[in-house]
Automatic annotation (TrEMBL):
Single Gene Ontology MF annotation: transcription cis-regulatory region binding
GO cellular component terms, A-Z: cytosol
Source organism of this protein record: Reyranella soli
InterPro entries linked: AraC-type_N, Homeodomain-like_sf, HTH_AraC
UniProt feature coiled coil, ranges: none
Superkingdom classification of source: Bacteria
S-adenosyl-L-methionine recorded as keyword: no
Gene transcribed to yield this protein: adiY_2
Keyword entries, A-Z: DNA-binding, Transcription, Transcription regulation
Protein's name in the database: AraC family transcriptional regulator
Ranges for domain HTH araC/xylS-type: 231-329
Length: 331
């Protein structure tokens, strides 16, 4: 389930464009009564169908992006007010991850630290919905605009990533989001530098934040927060890569399970340990090549290789190009 708030904004856009709502709402599985109040709840899958249909009816391939940048942080209801009263931008993103289930039970989110950057990664809990792009683009645009709004600065992400492929339509992703964009990633993500995440949220009220957090905890209830094991393993690997990829048995012991159990549980999430290590190394290598002046041997050592050769071969496997070709293209 998801709050009806964004469905009401979409319905307003369609109404202003002269589209009749009754037939469309029936088609996607939403009733008028369900979107009568922004605080109501609707099916997450129905909302996904609605935003995709809206983009087609409005003939706007960038509808999700433009919808995200057209609204303020506080238009997100309780979660928006939580972000607006967090001490720093990094705290705001951490609180979004912590309390996202209050307004949206259809999305998994994870805040991941990786050296000089942190990424708020998110994706649909239902894998069959992950090829739909309008909502992930809306969320990413909302985070980008929200960072500037909260800090009253030109805070800009290092990069935005999408699970989906780049569409055939001409969309100015870089112009709208103000940063480089990567497609066909494992998660949707908005990635900020640590310096940007330390920016203060202007006008934050710590007493109000405590009140809002208490409200969120009452809504979520005593249920334990669902952890994404694949993300946790990847984070464990990232923190130790400089000394080489941890042995799988050591990882299993860290998570208090046998190697066989860890392998099975990762498999349940369509993840494998080697793929997680490769993904972490690939993402970090791309970041260092595009955003730092580190030499290739320094990058190799940072990623747990003893010399540059294995990194070059792995990078070719990941991207079909050499590290230096990638650096030249993205600098």
């Amino acid at each position: 389930m998801i709050e009806a708030r964004w469905a009401t904004y979409i319905a307003d856009d369609l109404r202003r464009a002269g589209h009749a709502l009754d037939g469309l709402l029936r088609e996607v599985g939403i009733s008028r009564a369900e979107i009568a109040s922004p605080d109501g709840r609707i099916s997450y899958a129905a909302f996904m169908r609605l935003i995709e249909r809206a983009a087609l009816l409005l003939a706007e391939p960038a509808y999700g992006l433009k919808l995200g940048v057209s609204h303020d942080v506080r238009d997100n209801g309780l979660l928006g007010f939580i972000a607006a009263n967090s001490p720093t931008l990094g705290d705001a993103l951490a609180n979004v991850e912590r309390y996202i289930a209050v307004t949206n039970e259809g999305t998994d989110a994870a805040l991941e630290e990786a050296g000089p950057v942190s990424a708020l990664r998110f994706r649909d809990a239902n894998p069959t919905l992950r090829t739909l792009r309008q909502n992930s683009e809306r969320v990413s645009a909302l985070f980008v605009k929200g960072a500037r709004e909260l800090t009253r600065s030109k805070a800009t992400p290092v990069r935005v990533e999408f699970i989906h492929s780049r569409p055939n339509e001409r969309i100015d992703y870089e112009g709208i989001l103000g940063c480089s964009v990567r497609f066909q990633a494992e998660w949707d993500a908005v990635i900020f530098s640590e310096e940007t995440l330390r920016l203060p949220v202007i006008g934050a009220d710590n007493r109000l934040l405590r009140t809002l957090e208490a409200a969120c905890r009452r809504i979520i209830g005593p249920r334990p927060r669902k952890e994404d094991l694949a993300h946790s393993v990847r984070q464990y690997v990232v923190e130790r890569l400089a000394k080489g990829a941890p042995a799988f048995d050591d990882v299993a012991r860290h998570f208090n399970m046998s190697a066989k159990t860890l392998e099975r549980r990762l498999g349940e999430r369509n993840a494998g340990y080697r793929e997680l290590v490769d993904g972490a190394r690939c993402d970090l290598a791309k970041y260092y090549l595009a955003n730092t002046n580190l030499r290739l041997n320094q990058i190799a050592y940072t990623l747990g290789y003893t010399e540059p050769g294995p990194l070059v071969r792995a990078f070719r496997r990941w991207t079909d190009e050499t590290p230096m070709q990638y650096r030249h293209k993205h600098r």
